[in-house]
Task: structure prediction
Amino acid sequence: MKSLFRRLRAATAPPKLSDAQRDELTRALPFLVRLPPLRLERLHGLVARFLDEKTITPLQGLALDDGQRLQLAGLACLPLLEFGAEGLHGWRQVLVYPGAFRVQRRHHDEATGVVAEWVDELSGEAWDQGPLVLSWDDIQAELAEPEDGYQLVVHEMAHKIDILDGAMDGTPPLPAAWQREWARDFQAAYEAFCRRVDDGEETPIDPYAAEAPEEFFAVASEYHFSSPALLAREMPAVAAHLQRFYGQSPIPG
Result:
């Protein structure tokens, strides 16, 4: 019976990173040394689960070694340090292109019957109930300048978290009282930012944030993990919510 119990416990034990993997992850993402020990341990658990649950599929001749897969998993799990492994639910695959990729778009206007088709060139995409799609070149370019405000994997993971409540609207699953505060503060900041962009102002925050409320949340998330001081100066209420939601950024920015 004891032997059976040990086997059952081993079968259900959560995956763990080896010491060598932990060291490799820190080499791949040097800014992780700024995480307090408990948060770093939490990240290691999330990364182990990510690698166990997700299939990382390189495309178009790209090859990713174990260290590169660790790096990608580490970036994807950064936004989950406070939110938890729930952020990994609902999808199983990561598609990684060597660089920017093209997506065929089609829109049917029901009012006019007009069908429009076009091609978008993207560096990343998060499908509602499908894969995370990423450009490896963009990930590496951003890691070379980690405080410049861009963090593709965080951006797409923000969309994955956002959709967990059934609507990609810039408001992730939150307790009711916090959700009301979040919606109020983000909407006010989004509308103010859109006015600045519409007026032709050159904003310190990427103007892509004005595309839609969900993009505003995703872009703000990038700045939290790459240039949090700039985000706090430009949008203090948004920065305060993200500090609470994501925890302290390991990049001081």
Summary: The chain has one domain: 2-246. The chain has a mean pLDDT of 89.
